[in-house]
């Protein structure tokens, strides 16, 4: 199996890389100039980096998360970097009323919305499923239901602007990985909701794009803290990841794979030989370091 892995992975990677680079249309940062964008989960991590890229591109930015002090700093930095405007709303996405309030804020202070970037995630654990059903419910509210609520509230504005919805998901939202059972469930739910909604938009000629972002391991503080003792891979940079997400949204792509080659290759192997894929995954973890419950 080791040899198969050595031959299969690089050759699949080459094919995918060629397809990926030849099929891409061109992105220009000016595409985001003057655009009104909401970024959720923007107090830290990939969301924070997306806010800074959008600022450099001259967008009107509305960021949200729970921690007001961090959001104040993000807004200040966005203004320094050249944002057309920057503001924040703080609160928790456990509450759908709050999710709707963030969208209303875009209506009142920006007069509309061009791009809705849904990126926040609630804290979970990395380890064997502990049977805590309430945790699954709470995580579904934060990671899934609030995405549905924001999308629903923002749809009239997005239809008017022929705008875009960008949903940040994960490899764990496409295939089963161990140790992220509740998280994975919430990310799979996003795929179901947004892929189905995209079909209805096409039938109804609603020109609002939906971009689902399938991310691998990214070097944000929270991810590195949670998994680096178990996963030997080097994480990809959050700055580049953030830029790729914005680019895919602006180009109205249906799906983003980042890092492209690693994620594309894994999804391809999984679709051809799921059991082989699953055993490669299990074999790549440092199981002795996993928390047991
Ligand atoms: N990093 C990775 O390796 C990786 C891999 C695959 C997918 N992803 C996806 O990429 C996205 C960003 O990940 P990240 O690593 O940048 O995450 P992160 O650094 O942990 O940031 C999460 C953000 O969500 C906010 N948040 C947490 N709980 C919240 C709540 N209850 N209500 C509102 N906001 C809340 C946090 O701010 P407050 O604490 O201030 O609320 C923070 O701004 C997520 O969708 C994640 O699933 C990441
Ligand atoms: C959909 O909206 C985009 C962005 O405004 C535009 O470029 C594209 O031509 C529109 N497509 C249709 C079919 O109207």
UniProtKB/TrEMBL annotation:
Main localisation, per the record? endoplasmic reticulum
This entry's Gene Ontology molecular function terms read:
11-beta-hydroxysteroid dehydrogenase (NADP+) activity; 7-beta-hydroxysteroid dehydrogenase (NADP+) activity; steroid binding
One GO process term, biological-process aspect: steroid catabolic process
- Keyword Ribonucleoprotein listed? The answer is no
Coiled-coil stretches:
none
Which Pfam family, an example, fits this chain?
A: adh_short
Q: Name the membrane topology term.
A: Single-pass type II membrane protein
Can you quote a single GO CC term?
endoplasmic reticulum membrane
Subcellular location(s) of the protein: Endoplasmic reticulum membrane
Catalytic activity entry: corticosterone + NADP(+) = 11-dehydrocorticosterone + NADPH + H(+); 3beta-hydroxy-5alpha-androstane-7,17-dione + NADPH + H(+) = 3beta,7beta-dihydroxy-5alpha-androstan-17-one + NADP(+); 7-oxocholesterol + NADPH + H(+) = 7beta-hydroxycholesterol + NADP(+); chenodeoxycholate + NADP(+) = 7-oxolithocholate + NADPH + H(+)
EC number, UniProt record? 1.1.1.146, 1.1.1.201
Its keywords, alphabetically, are: Endoplasmic reticulum, Membrane, Oxidoreductase, Transmembrane, Transmembrane helix
Please give the InterPro entries that the UniProt record associates with this protein.
11-beta-HSD (IPR051253), NAD(P)-bd_dom_sf (IPR036291), Sc_DH/Rdtase_CS (IPR020904), SDR_fam (IPR002347)
Subunit-structure text:
Homodimer.
Family designation: Belongs to the short-chain dehydrogenases/reductases (SDR) family.
What's this protein's name?
11-beta-hydroxysteroid dehydrogenase 1
Q: What species is this protein from?
A: Ficedula albicollis (Collared flycatcher)
